[in-house]
Design a protein that fits this description.
Shape: globular
Helix content: 25-40%
Largest sheet: 5 strands, mixed
Bound molecules: uridine-5'-diphosphate
Number of helices: 4
Distance between the termini: 62 Å
């Protein structure tokens, strides 16, 4: 058993050199796969996710089709090489649960009523895992949905906050996720001010919870601007091609 390292160093910085309110470097790209209707690549620090979206298309098997809206089917999966120790490719209970959590969060962003009897299928592959994979996957899925031309209320922006050595921190890295006192992923539809996912593992005081949520809002606003830039660039490109 490895001993818990010090998570906040004497100069107040974290193990990766960040201050408590700093995000990890982030990269987002859409339209990365030619065989999907929509796709994306999202990198948050060392966490890397590929998402692919198919649909809206005719639902198979047909008896599962809903008369009034599209059905969203979502798979979150970790590749065997994404973690320190080889992960079995067979979906674990954790992956099945995260698929459901991500589906529910994503569904609230999509105008599913516009596509009765159809299915929208979303696949997320964790290529490299270094904490925060559920949120990076959710954002990758949301960007891929927009890339597929599916109408949404807003693109989802998300970040985890938590507590490490008693300090409220933004965007947990793996040691903080593993050894910290609390981990709270938060996802939002920022322009609507709606929270679509929030979970809390560990413990925080009410004061820390409030502080954490404020920190998450700040991080989400930065991430949302980055997403909008990525989408604007892509759609400007299409516009130029068309004109
Ligand atoms: N992790 C791992 N193997 C697993 C599951 C998780 O190495 O089978 C690592 C991975 O880096 C992941 C982190 O533990 O990002 C935290 O996992 P958690 O369940 O908290 O979800 P996440 O923070 O990725 O959404």
């Amino acid at each position: 058993q490895v001993q818990k390292p010090k998570l906040i160093l004497d100069d107040g910085r974290r193990l990766d050199g960040r201050r408590p309110d700093e995000l990890r470097p982030m990269k987002m790209e859409i339209g990365v796969l030619k065989n999907a209707d929509g796709s994306s690549l999202v990198e948050v620090g060392n966490t890397k996710i590929i998402a692919a979206v198919y649909g809206p298309r005719e639902m198979h098997p047909r008896h599962l089709a809903l008369p009034n809206r599209a059905t969203l089917r979502v798979r979150y999966h970790m590749t065997p090489f994404s973690t320190d120790e080889r992960k079995s490719p067979v979906p674990s209970r954790r992956e099945i649960e995260l698929s459901k959590v991500i589906r529910e969060a994503l569904e609230s962003s999509i105008l599913v009523e516009q596509f009765p009897r159809s299915s929208i299928d979303v696949f997320m592959e964790v290529i490299q895992a270094d904490a925060g994979t559920r949120l990076a996957s959710l954002m990758a899925a949301s960007l891929a949905v927009v890339d597929a031309g599916i109408p949404v209320k807003d693109v989802i922006a998300a970040v985890a906050v938590g507590k490490a050595d008693g300090v409220v921190v933004l965007d947990l890295n793996e040691p903080e996720d593993m050894w910290g006192e609390a981990d709270m992923p938060v996802a939002m539809l920022p322009s609507l001010g709606q929270i679509t996912l929030i979970q809390l593992n560990g413990n925080m005081t009410q004061q820390e919870f409030k502080q954490g949520l404020e920190l998450a809002y700040k991080g989400i606003s930065t991430i949302y601007n980055l997403e909008k830039e990525v989408l604007r660039n892509k759609f400007a490109e299409i516009h130029e091609e068309g004109s």
